[in-house]
Amino acid sequence: MCKSFKVIAVHGSPRKEGRTAELLNYVIEELRKFDKVEIEIIHLIDHPIRFCMGCYSDDPKLCNPKNCTQGVLEDSMKSLHSKIILADAIIFATPVYWYNMSGVMKNFIDRLTALENAGKLLDNKVAGFVVAAEEDGATQVISNLMAFANDNGMLITPYSLVYSVGRGSVGKDEEAVLYARRLGQNIYRMLKIACKVKKPWKEYDD
């Protein structure tokens, strides 16, 4: 049995106390009710991340955690890769900018390609998604994030798509708050299930 669980909340808004952070906090509040859960919030705005250079297009072998964090790509991703590899669950939280995720979140997601190319290193990690939008685009952004997580073998929980649309305090959006709390509970439940699966899928026979 797992002695504890490490949850990384990746916050992709440049505003640390904005609506995205507020909605994410409801998820974290639920997770903190469980004794064996350690939570770390990563504000991407504090970690300069260069955009992907497309090394995979030249040679797939070049796209790996080592090459992806040196030379012109020497930035915060080296330490972030290490944190992500050690995490049991990852919550992706972003505002909607022009019907898409924030630029810092997109750069972060693109640079995680090195972990996928190094052997599906996100496999069996639990994923959750939190999005705040002023108008349209929330479900579109979540769909993009879920596609990334699914293709990397991550475990997507029930009630995993949490979003709020509008202005002002997220606390006034009762349905969004309810779903955020459900996400926190279900991340913990999924972590307990994933704990029983010791090996990635590719090592199992039919």
Model description:
- Helices cover 37% and strands 21% of the residues.
- With 206 residues, it is an alpha/beta fold.
- The protein has a single domain (5-198), classed as 3-Layer(aba) Sandwich (Rossmann fold), CATH 3.40.50.360.
- Strands 1, 2, 3, 4, 5 and 6 form a 6-stranded mixed sheet that branches.
- The chain starts with a strand and ends in an 11-residue tail after the last helix.
- The model has no long low-confidence stretch (mean pLDDT 88).
Low-confidence parts: none
Radius of gyration over C-alpha positions, nearest whole angstrom: 17 Å
Helix % is: 25-40%
The overall average pLDDT, rounded, is 88
Provide key terms for this protein.
single chain, 206 residues
Provide a quick synopsis of the model.
The protein has a single domain, classed as Rossmann fold. The protein contains seven helices and six strands; from the N terminus they run βαβααββααβαβα.
How would the blueprint of this fold be written?
Blueprint: E1 5-11, H1 19-31, E2 37-43, H2 55-58, H3 77-86, E3 89-97, E4 100-101, H4 103-111, H5 113-117, E5 126-133, H6 138-151, E6 155-165, H7 174-195
Parallel strand pairs: 1-2, 1-3, 3-5, 5-6
Antiparallel strand pairs: 3-4
Helix pairs in contact: 1-7
